[in-house]
Amino acid sequence: MNQIEKTGELTSSRFTVRDFTELVKIGIVNSNTITAFTGMWLAFQLNGISFIQNVDVIFFTIVGSALIVAASGAFNNVIDRDIDGIMERTKNRPTMTGKISGKRALMVALVLGVVGTIMLFMTTWQAGVLGVIGVFLYVVVYSLYAKRKLVSNTVIGSFSGAVPPLIGWFAVEPTFSIVPIMLFLVMFCWQPPHFYAIAIKRKEEYAAAGIPMLPVVKGIERTKKSMFFWVILLTVLPFFMFDLGLVYVILATLLNIGWLALSIYGFKMDDSIKWAKWMFVYSLNYMTILFVAMVVISIFL
To answer: What span, in angstroms and rounded, lies between the C-alpha atoms of 145 and 285?
Structure first.
């Protein structure tokens, strides 16, 4: 394979919807938009602000959040062209297959980022600033530097991933309170065990690409200990969220106990790859259930 093919610079006129969704990492867009919606919804519900009378805020918040996350994903694909071809999970991205050039991907990222940021500033300036901070942390701090240089890359990347619920909250109620702080911390603490599970499964690929993920540098057993630590931190957070009611605190605690038990089981299980798959699946269901529960339970407060 020549260097042009390695960096995905060959382009095809057939740039499909699927290519676009892969470029912007649609799964990450969807999950982050859900957390942004949750932050916005709770701001409406807990502060007695009319949801129906703020349709414009809802539209600008949801679409703006989705666009800046999509922009971040596209920027990341442009930056990672030198390593994506080495890894099985990323070698078929459109920037690698030649469906879209780096230049075109960069243009898409810039347009999405600018439009999304403008939309967030049309809610509150605080939400707009948070959007800019989130993109900067993910693209510049994480993608350009931490991911390639630091074993703490996953923790550093978690800062940007925890910003969307703050954007949602501050688009409606631009003041700090315990709920948005806890939403940020839930997202921040959830990400290391989630992404470390992926890193364990893809340890050899990350090693080949020269990415200093924790399992590559410190080993799988050390990674298990770190995952256990972050899950322990998550178990504490529900007890600061009684604003969402006792039902939420109980549900979140049960989910945390389940994840804690699975984390402990990892120290006894010989098949670490299989265990990492279980941890990954649990983390996805954990986040979905938790954030949907926040929305549903808040209706009855």
So the answer is: 30
Conformational region of residue 271, where left means phi above 0, alpha means psi within -120 to 50, and beta covers everything else: beta
CA end-to-end span of the chain? 60
Distance, CA of 29 to CA of 71 (rounded, Å): 9
For the entire predicted model, the pTM comes to 0.93
User: What are φ and ψ of residue 60, in 5° steps?
Assistant: -65, -35
CB 274 within 8 Å of CB 188: no
61-103 residue pLDDT tens:
999 999 999 999 999 999 999 999 898 888 889 998 888 999 9
CB neighbourhood size of 66 (10 A): 22
CA dist., res. 223 & res. 212, Å (int): 12
Other Cβ atoms within 10 Å of 162 Cβ, number: 22
> Which amino acid appears at position 296 of this protein?
V
Backbone angles phi, psi at 297, to 5 degrees: -65, -35
